[in-house]
TrEMBL record:
PANTHER family: SULFOTRANSFERASE SULT. GO terms for molecular function: sulfotransferase activity. InterPro entries: P-loop_NTPase, Sulfotransferase_dom. Residues 39-201 form the Sulfotransferase domain. The keyword Transferase applies. Pfam families: Sulfotransfer_1 (PF00685). Keywords: Transferase. It is an enzyme of class 2 (transferase). The keyword Transferase applies. This is Sulfotransferase. The lineage of its organism: Eukaryota, Metazoa, Chordata, Cephalochordata, Leptocardii. Belongs to the sulfotransferase 1 family. It comes from Branchiostoma lanceolatum (Common lancelet). Its EC number is 2.8.2.-.
């Protein structure tokens, strides 16, 4: 097994009683709720370890008419900035602040629960693409990532599993609250709810994403 860097894990941060890892910024999350949404904004949302990066890549390719050489010119963290984070390239600015001047169309990723999304997005402005994954796979993937990523405190499988199924201890909100909340909005005009398991049916997913973006 590969050795991990000698670095202390970061303590979690809390916003409105929900625990998040240290990549999340309470300031950015507060700003996100009043974020000015444009009609062509796209929010790529998912619970942690549920297919966020995969969805980001598909959306990027759809927006670039499938031109992978064009997509690869820009790193994914710049193509689809993390809405509730801060800029780690040097400015330290909350990402919602930096996105104010970003050209359209803006693609953004988020792990926020539905109730913490920008209010204008919840009111129907912009597009929300939500990817959900079987919870059994989510918790296993989350545990495995924590064994490799030093910044997130990691316990044994039993400890991490117990944390995941404890409402007040789970990172990014309690899965059994977050997913049903998004599911209740699956028929909203600006929402596309897809599943990680359907991502294997690439042609099927591409067509659905292409349709909501137009």
């Amino acid at each position: 097994m590969m050795s991990l860097p000698s670095q202390e894990p970061s303590q979690p941060v809390y916003y409105k009683g929900v625990k998040f890892d240290a990549n999340h910024s309470p300031v950015a999350m507060e700003m996100a709720e009043s974020f000015e949404v444009r009609d062509d904004d796209v929010f790529i949302a998912a619970y942690l370890k549920s297919g966020t990066t995969w969805t980001q890549q598909i959306v990027s390719l759809v927006c670039a008419d499938g031109d992978i050489s064009e997509v690869c010119k820009v790193p994914i963290f710049r193509r689809t900035p993390w809405l509730e984070s801060v800029d780690r390239s040097g400015t330290g600015e909350p990402m919602p602040k930096l996105l104010e001047k970003a050209p359209s169309p803006r693609l953004m990723k988020t792990h926020l629960p539905y109730n913490m999304l920008p209010q204008q997005a919840k009111d129907g402005k912009g597009k929300i693409i939500y990817c959900a994954r079987n919870v059994k796979d989510v918790v296993v993937s989350w545990h495995n990532m924590r064994r490799m990523v030093v910044r997130i405190p990691c316990g044994t499988w039993e400890e991490n599993f117990k944390e995941f199924i404890t409402p007040k201890e789970a990172y990014n909100g309690f899965w059994w609250d977050v997913i049903p909340e998004y599911w209740r909005h699956k028929d909203d005009g600006n929402m596309l709810f897809i599943k990680f398991e359907d991502m294997k049916k690439v042609r099927f997913v591409d067509k659905k994403i292409d349709r909501i973006l137009k």
